[in-house]
Amino acid sequence: MTGDNSIKQLLHKAAASISSDSPRLDAEILLCHLLNKPRSHLFTWPEQVLEPKLVETFLKLVQRRCAGEPVAYLTGQQEFWSLQLKVSPAVLIPRPDTELLVELALQWPANTPLDVLDLGTGSGAIALALASERPAWRITATDQSEEVLNIARDNAGRHQLSNVRFNQGSWYQAVTSQTFDLIVSNPPYIPAADPHLATGGLQFEPEQALVSGVIGLDDIEAIAGEAVRYLNDNGWLLVEHGYDQGTAVRQIFERHGLETVRTELDLEGRERVTLGTLNESS
Fold first, then answer.
1. Which of 16, 47, 210, 243 is the most exposed place for a label (fewest CB within 10 A)?
2. What number of other Cβ atoms are within 10 A of residue 39's Cβ?
3. Are 152 and 50 in the same domain?
């Protein structure tokens, strides 16, 4: 990839070398990141010749992308629910599938001040999406890693969201005697031996945010198992899971005393989020 260092030629050669579902888009995002320009700049100034140092940096990013490293880690950011979030290899990259969890939580009335718990917040994606849409809600976001929580705090500061507090600890260890109207989580749910962990960029993401025991349900079991202690009467637990885990997760919820259990489908018609409630009479 030497010779013509115009935007047009660099993008053409980069797209030809990247093996992904969207090689051209990947190349454009990386170049826009370096130029600090919107994608429209690439189309408006395709003949612009770039400085050699910038070209060198771009080519290094392209090489890393060719090795499978996710674009979000290369740029240090990922959009979720219209929020531009800082990410690093310490946190799971927020995915569109998780927006279903946000949509379901937002079905609760906007003018009702709820206490909400986001377990395993990572970059803060779920908690901050809810905070941006429901300023009256009091949201607690937890993670076992202080490094990860600092990223989430930074994202909250970037978007001036003050109705979220961050607590360190593993699952409910991060909260004491408080109870909540909603508990939401996108926990690890991939089986330890799943071959997909070595492909598609997953090998660059934190294993502790992906893997959950032999069949992928250890953390969901832990979350559901303690939920009744931390839910208010008529409170709800909403958990994201794998497309083939719906039946097992419903059984886990029901075994631990949750009622009105159901599973919602994602945009591709796959079981993605299971929810259940603690009825007042329970």
1. 47
2. 12
3. no
